[in-house]
Structures are given as structure tokens and as C-alpha cells.
């Protein structure tokens, strides 16, 4: 995939817009370790994020996901809240170590029972369950055996996929294998800002290959154990890469980041081969000839029904220049180690202008439009779904306990208009999942960043829908963006 632009002109959203496509699916998303809590209950054992967050200095304020948003105990109330907001679908992830504590062998039925109950509650509320098998929480025992850099982890993942398909396949018909494998590989094993916190460039590339293989093996396992009508997907955080200038050097910097940020996954998954430039850029780090075995590429290219696309902000790059600022200003956390093996020299830049989110990410809705159109042109027969999109802001209740977040409403309006426009211009976009349903444990940032449409008071676990939650519910009811009613609306 190529998502490189330097001449995009922002599009102004009209006061009111045409409806979204017929059948367009409206949802919100969470991830198990970020919301569930109950970290040691009913047989669950530590994942790499339990270990990482309990290691001093790894997360802001030493925060952990031990309690998080307590979704494990409050899921019935949370589903009732989803229904009141009008959600049509809920994208959740499964905690692998809650279901299969060692990452091997038979499932723990108590762990499966939680997800059975959650799915039943969703269905009773008329909400479509969308299951993600892996959102970064590898069982610690598998990491102790080498983790994703080891081929055996991909085989264990396929076994786990089969367990989940057999347990929930009669009630869940939309499945995602991996969420953002780029983060798992390159933040977990390259820069070390995510669990397991390793800083080994070769291990990061090996992890990327084995995550690709895990996806292919899991897709095969899902198809073998699900009804024929079930849909299988993978979700990628595709970097919408732009060169800073029109120079050849900056174009090559963008090519490099597109290779290790995007095509390392889209190449084998969607085209059955790793791109030659990626192999060349990284040949000094890893021996691809030994890493890729016979049959791997065919397995990785298992057909999928939908491609999930996550987008938050564009990625602007250049070659280093004298006086340039932080070359790691890539939006992926602070580390002395790069998550870009083979292209460590590339410099990253914030997009010009305001606004920015609490993550210091530039708000550029046109990047989502460009990304959807680029993917659609390259893979015209592959349906797309926006599986994560949202923003963190410094939300706080007012004197009456209400939480007004006009910045988030403005962010969502711009990005939803970008999705609607892409669909109108020919991209086969089937749905949109807001990130996130509720405030939660934001990985290395702990509880300092709030992405939710629902405010969580962590001391009491009280849920308060923010203004954006009600606004999003109105969008769903209209199946269109409402007219602009005033500043930030």
C-alpha cells in the first residue's frame, strides 16, 4: 500500500451532509486490558501488559489495568448505556489469558463464560458483537518462552482462535484476528514503550512476520470453525504518510516509513509478498530468507472479508536537517530506541497549525479521507471499516457533573464527514467505530489521557456520557451528520 501525499487540501464540512451509505454500521470500541479490570479473577493470569504496567517507570504514575473501568463487573450496565446511546455494534477484545491462562491447552470455562454473557447481553439489547482476538495482551507465559519473535507463538494463537470460534461462533459473526500488529511488533519489541518493553530491532521484525503468520493461521482456524456467513478481518493502524517537502530525499523518507509502517503488513496479507524495498531497507538487521519459510506467505494471505482501518493523525516525515527538532516526534511515545528498524534516521514532524489533541496529535480529517481512498484504489474489491477513530482531550465535569467536550465533537464531525465523502467518492466503507466507548487505561499514559465518549470517575466508577456521546447518538439516529448548531457543535 502507498499512502504518501504532499498536496492535500483540507475540505470544509458543509452545514449538513448527505446520509451515510445504506447498511452503514455504527459502533464504538474498547480493548480488554484497557477496560475490564478483574485482572486476577476467575483464573485469569498475567499478560505482558500486567507485567509491564507493574514494572516501575513503565507507565505514567505507575498506573495499571488491575481495575481499569471495571467493565468485567459492570458490563450489564455498560451494555444498557450503549443501548441508550443508540449504538448498533460494540467492538470488544478478548483477554487471551482470561480464556487460556498459559496460552496453551484447553480453555478455562469461567473465562469463556464472561464473554458468552457479554455477547448474550449485547444481543438482547439489539447490539451487534464484534470480537477482536488480540489487542496486545499476550499471556506472560508465552512471552517468557520468547513472545512474538518466536514462530511457536503464531501456532498458539491459531489454537486460541479455534477455541474462541467454537465458543462464540453461534452468536458472533464478525471477527478480527489482530488489532494494530504494528504496535505489537515495533512498540513492544523495537522502541519498548509498549509491553513487553524490549528494544531489539531484529526481534521487532521477527515479531512482525510472526504476527502476520498468526493472522493467517487464525483466519484459517476461524473459517474452519465458524458458519460460512461469518466475516473475518484484521485491523491495521495504517500510517497516512506525507513527505515534508517535495524533495526526492523526503519522498524516500516517506517511502521508507510507508514500507515499515504499512506495507510490512499489507504486502504479505493482501498481496502475498513482502515489498522488495522493505527487505532491502532491513536486510542488515534480519535474515528474511531464514525467517520466511515455505508456505508462510500463502498462509498469511488467507482471504479476509473486511479490512479494519484505524486512523488518528497523519505521519509527516523528512530526512534529518540541521537544527531539526526531535526526530522521534512520531506520536508513538518517548524512547531512546526507534520503532522504525532500518529507517531510524527518518525525522518526524507535526502537521502545521491547530488544533491538536491532548496526545499532541494534529487534527487532520482529510488524512482519513486520503487513506480510505488510497486503500480503496489499491484494493478495490476489499470492503473497509473504520475500526478506530477518536481523540483524547482534557475532559472534566462541570459544577453540575456534566462533561462538555466540544473539541471532540468537532474532531468527530470532521472525520465522519471524511468517511462519508470517501464513501460517496467510491470507497466501500461499511462502518465506523468510535474510539473509545469510555475513558480507560491508555497504555503507557495510564489514566492521564481520556479518549472516551463516556467519562469514567475512576474513584467511584461512575459513568457520565459526555456531550460527544449524545451527539454521536444523534448522528446514528439520523444516519447523517446534523447541521452545525453553533461553536464546536
TrEMBL record:
Chain residue ranges for the region called Disordered: 320-341
InterPro entries assigned to the protein according to its UniProt record, in alphabetical order: GH, GH_1_N_CS, Glyco_hydro_1, Glyco_hydro_1_beta-glucosidase
Gene Ontology terms for molecular function: beta-glucosidase activity
EC identifiers of the protein: 3.2.1.21
Enzyme class: hydrolase
UniProt keyword annotation of DNA repair present: no
PROSITE patterns: GLYCOSYL_HYDROL_F1_2
Keywords on record: Carbohydrate metabolism, Cellulose degradation, Glycosidase, Hydrolase, Polysaccharide degradation
Nucleotide-binding recorded as keyword: no
Pfam family, one: Glyco_hydro_1
Substrates-to-products reaction catalysed: Hydrolysis of terminal, non-reducing beta-D-glucosyl residues with release of beta-D-glucose
PANTHER family: GLYCOSYL HYDROLASE, LP05116P
Family assignment from sequence similarity: Belongs to the glycosyl hydrolase 1 family.
Official protein name in the record: Beta-glucosidase
Species this protein is from: Streptomyces anulatus (Streptomyces chrysomallus)
Amino acid at each position: 500500500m502507498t499512502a504518501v501525499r504532499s498536496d492535500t487540501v483540507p475540505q470544509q464540512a458543509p452545514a449538513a451532509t448527505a446520509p451515510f451509505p445504506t447498511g452503514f454500521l455504527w459502533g464504538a470500541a474498547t480493548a480488554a486490558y484497557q477496560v475490564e479490570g478483574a485482572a486476577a479473577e476467575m483464573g485469569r493470569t498475567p499478560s505482558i501488559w500486567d507485567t509491564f504496567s507493574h514494572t516501575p517507570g513503565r507507565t505514567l504514575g505507575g498506573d495499571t489495568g488491575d481495575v481499569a473501568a471495571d467493565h468485567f463487573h459492570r458490563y450489564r450496565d455498560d451494555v444498557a448505556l450503549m443501548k441508550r446511546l443508540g449504538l448498533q455494534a460494540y467492538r470488544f477484545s478478548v483477554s487471551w489469558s482470561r480464556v487460556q491462562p498459559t496460552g496453551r491447552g484447553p480453555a478455562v470455562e469461567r473465562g469463556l463464560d464472561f464473554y458468552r454473557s457479554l455477547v448474550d447481553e449485547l444481543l438482547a439489547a439489539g447490539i451487534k458483537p464484534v470480537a477482536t482476538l488480540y489487542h496486545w495482551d499476550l499471556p506472560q507465559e508465552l512471552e517468557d518462552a520468547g513472545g512474538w519473535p518466536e514462530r511457536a507463538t503464531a501456532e498458539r494463537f491459531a489454537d486460541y482462535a479455534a477455541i474462541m470460534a467454537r465458543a462464540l461462533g453461534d452468536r458472533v459473526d464478525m471477527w478480527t484476528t489482530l488489532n494494530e500488529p504494528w504496535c505489537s511488533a515495533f512498540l513492544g519489541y523495537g522502541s519498548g514503550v509498549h509491553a513487553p518493553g524490549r528494544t531489539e530491532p531484529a526481534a521487532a521484525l521477527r515479531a512482525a512476520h510472526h504476527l502476520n503468520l498468526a493472522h493467517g493461521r487464525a483466519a484459517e482456524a476461524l473459517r474452519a470453525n465458524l458458519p460460512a456467513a461469518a466475516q473475518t478481518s484484521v485491523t491495521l493502524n495504517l500510517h497516512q504518510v506525507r513527505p515534508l517537502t517535495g524533495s526526492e530525499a523526503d519522498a524516500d523518507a516517506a517511502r521508507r516509513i510507508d514500507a515499515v509502517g504499512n506495507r510490512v503488513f499489507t504486502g504479505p496479507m493482501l498481496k502475498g509478498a513482502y515489498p522488495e524495498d522493505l527487505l532491502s531497507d532491513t536486510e542488515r538487521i534480519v535474515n528474511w530468507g531464514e525467517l520466511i519459510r515455505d508456505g508462510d506467505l500463502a498462509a498469511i494471505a488467507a482471504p479476509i472479508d473486511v479490512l479494519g482501518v484505524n486512523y488518528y493523525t497523519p505521519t509527516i516525515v523528512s530526512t534529518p536537517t540541521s537544527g531539526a527538532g526531535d526526530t522521534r516526534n512520531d506520536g508513538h511515545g518517548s524512547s531512546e530506541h526507534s520503532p522504525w528498524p532500518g529507517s531510524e534516521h527518518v525525522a518526524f514532524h507535526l502537521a502545521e497549525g491547530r488544533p491538536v489533541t491532548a496526545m499532541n496529535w494534529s487534527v487532520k480529517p482529510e488524512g482519513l479521507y486520503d487513506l480510505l481512498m488510497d486503500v480503496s484504489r489499491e484494493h478495490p474489491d476489499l470492503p473497509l471499516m473504520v475500526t478506530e477513530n477518536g481523540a483524547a482531550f482534557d475532559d472534566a465535569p462541570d459544577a453540575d457533573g456534566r462533561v462538555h467536550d466540544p473539541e471532540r465533537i468537532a474532531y468527530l464531525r470532521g472525520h465522519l464527514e471524511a468517511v462519508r465523502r470517501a464513501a460517496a467518492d467510491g470507497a466501500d466503507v461499511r462502518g465506523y467505530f468510535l474510539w473509545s466507548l469510555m475513558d480507560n487505561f491508555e497504555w503507557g499514559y495510564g489514566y492521564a489521557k481520556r479518549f472516551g465518549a463516556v467519562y469514567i470517575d475512576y474513584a467511584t466508577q461512575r459513568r457520565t456520557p459526555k456531550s460527544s456521546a449524545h451527539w454521536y447518538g444523534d448522528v446514528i439516529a439520523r444516519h447523517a451528520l446534523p447541521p452545525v448548531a453553533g461553536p464546536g457543535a
